[in-house]
Amino acid sequence: MRNAQIHRPANVDHYLGILCGTNLTPQHRSTAMALLIAELDKLSDDAEHLGFAESKVASSRDQVTQAASIRDSFAAGTSEREHAERHLVHLENIHTAIDNFCHRLRNKIASRPS
Known about the structure:
Elements: H1 2-19, H2 26-43, H3 50-72, H4 79-111
């Protein structure tokens, strides 16, 4: 069972890498997001994964901040800004999914009997 636990964080990283790409079709992005959420749900039974999840939230927050800064560097109405805006929205969606997972995991851990 320990081997499966090691692969799960690697799977999360794999799907995050795919989702951070800019050349995904909406269908591929939706599929990758669903697979990411499924992998995160597999981690929810193990309290030791909270630190991993929290580090992913912090990293995704930094990516969102950086993407917003890049978007803001382009003039309004340009194709570059529109592309950067779409990428920012994708990163915000990823961040929201990971952050929601962290909240669920924290609540699950807090509700366990001591």
